[in-house]
TrEMBL record:
PANTHER family: ABC TRANSPORTER G FAMILY MEMBER 28, ABC TRANSPORTER G FAMILY MEMBER 9. Its main location: membrane. The keyword Nucleotide-binding applies. Pfam families: ABC2_membrane, ABC2_membrane_7, ABC_tran. It comes from Papaver nudicaule (Iceland poppy). The keyword Nucleotide-binding applies. This is ABC transporter domain-containing protein. SMART domains: AAA. InterPro entries: AAA+_ATPase (IPR003593), ABC2_TM (IPR013525), ABC_transporter-like_ATP-bd (IPR003439), ABC_transporter-like_CS (IPR017871), ABCG_dom (IPR043926), ABCG_transporters (IPR050352), P-loop_NTPase (IPR027417). It is a multi-pass membrane protein. PROSITE patterns: ABC_TRANSPORTER_1, ABC_TRANSPORTER_2. GO terms for molecular function: ABC-type transporter activity; ATP binding; ATP hydrolysis activity.
Amino acid sequence: MADREEQIYPVQFSEQEARIKNVRSHPVTLKFKDVTYEIKTKKRSGILIGDGAYSKSKVEDDSNAKVILKGITGIVQPGEMLAILGPSGCGKTTLLTALGGRRLLGGQLITETLMFTALLRLPNTITKEEKINRTEEVIGQLGLTGCKNTIMGGPFIRGVSGGERKRVSIGQEILTNPSLLLLDEPTSGLDSTSAQQVVSMLGAFADEGQRTVLMSIHQPASKLFYMFHKILLLSDGNPLYFGKGNDTMEYFSSIGYSSSIAVNLSDFLVDLANGVYLDDLDEESRKDVKQGLVLAYKNNLLNRLKEEHKLEVDHNNGLTRYRQMDKDTGQWPTTWGQEFSVLLKRDFLERKHESFSVMLVGQNVVLSFLCGILWWKSSINHIEDQIGFMFFSNMYWSLIPMYNAILTFPQERMMLTKERSSRMYRLSSYFIARNVADLPMELALPTLFVTITYWMAGFKPTAGSFLTTLLVTLYNVLVSQSLGLAIGSMIMNPRTGAVLGGIICQAFLLACGFYIRTIPSFIAWIKYISQNYYIYKLLLGSQYKNEDLYPCGTNVSCRVGSNPTIEKVGIGNEVVSVAALGLMLVGYRLVAYIALKRLRETK
C-alpha cells in the first residue's frame, strides 16, 4: 500500500496570500513501498464441437492471478516532479490510480470552467473577488490568456485546441494549490511545443510552492526528460529504475547497458523496458534483458530506496496523515446553497447549446403542426380520433423524456466521479441542481406542442380544459424523466439502459388498455404501476364527463362513459391518479439518488 505523509514547515505569508495562495500550505512527502496490484482472470471451458465453437461453456476462476504491479517502491519530496516512464501496458496508470485512489465541460468558456472550479473548491474564507483573481492568475500561469474567452467545445462544437484543453484540465486541479498533484499522461496527443509548455508549467508549480508532482508520460522528448527531478521506469509492472533524472544514463551504463551513439534518452529507456538493447529484437534476448534489468534494480537500487524510507520516517516522526488533515479542516469548502447556486448556473450554461437548439425546437414545431393537421378540428363526434390523439400524446411525451434522462448520468459519470473524489460538492446539491437545470427545456417543448395541437385538433375551447391538458402533459414528462433517471443511474450503460427502458415503457403502454381491452388477470396489475395509465385517465377527464353524449350510430347517442375504450380505463378518481403519479415522481428520483450514492461508495 502507499503511505502518504505530511510535514508542516514554517511558512510566512500575508493574511491575503495565506487565504488565496496557500489553501493547502503543508508540503507533502509521498512515499510508496512495495505497491502490488493483481487481478483474477477467468477462463472459459466447454466441449469443442468443431470450427472452434464450444458447447455448454462455463466460466471458471483461473488459479493464476495476473499481477499488474510488482512491488513498486519510491519517495517523492516536496518541490520534486516525478515522471513515470514505460511502454504501453507497463502499469503507469494503474500505479497512479493506486497512489491517488481516484471530462471537461464542452459548453463553457475557459474562464467559466475555471471560475466554477474556484467557486466550488476554494473555501469561504476566500472572498468571491479573491477567487476571481486566483482564476485569472492560473489562466496567466497556464498561458491561456489569449483564448480565455474561447468556448471549451465538444463533439459538435468547435472550441479550444487539444493542448489548451489539457492545460485547462490541469488548471482545475492547481486552482486550490494542492500539496500533491497526480497526472495521467498530461502531454499525450500534444505537439512538442505544447507538451513542453505543460511540463514547464508543472515544474514551476512544484518549485514555487514546494508541491509534490507525479505524472505518467509515455515517451517524452529530450528537452522534457531533463525537466524531471526523478524518474521511475516500469516494465511489465516491474520497476527498472528509480532515481534522479540526471543520473539515469550513468546508472544503466554501470550495469552494462549504454549506447555508443547519440539517442533520445527516453527512447533508449523505453526500448530497454521492452527488452530491446542494441536493436536486438530476438524474443529470448528481450526476455533476458528484462530479467537482467529487474535483477539489477533489486541488487543496486532497492535497498537504498528502503533505507531512504527509514530515514524519512525518523525525520518525520510525529507527522499527521494528509487525508486526516483534510477531515480535520472541514468536510466541505462551501455551503450547500453555494454549491447548488454554482452548479445550477454551470448546468444552465452547459445545456443551453444542446437544449435550446434550432434543430430541437424546429423538430417539435414540425411535429406539432403535423399532428394538428392530421387531427384538424376533430370533435366529440369523432371521439375515437380524439382519444387516439390523447394516447399518442401520452406515449410520445413519456418515451422522449425517458430516453433523454437515461443518458444523463452515464454521460456525466467520469466528470461526477472526478469532481466528487475531489470533494468539490455534495451529491445532493449536484443531483438537485441537475434536475432543476433540465426543467426549462423539458417543459418548454411539451408546452409548445400542446399549445399548437390543442386548438388545431378541436378539443374543448375552454381555458380550464386547456390548462388541465397542459399540466397533465407536463406531469407525464416529469414522471417519465424520473423513470429514465432511475434506469440510467442503476445501469450506467446507455445502450443497456435504452433497451431496458424500451421494454418497461412498452409494457406500461400495453397495460393502458388502448391496444387490447381484455387483458389476462395475471398481468393486468401492471397498469397500476404504469404512469401512462394514470396520465391517460387524466387526459380523458380533461375533455369528457361520463354523462357527456356522442353519436355512436345513425341517430343514436351514447354516454361517453359507456365507450368501450373509455369504460375500460375509466373517468374520475383524479386525486388518486395525481397522488400515484406523485409517488412515482419522488420514488424514481429517490432510487436514482441512492444508485448514485452507491456508485460513489463502491469507487
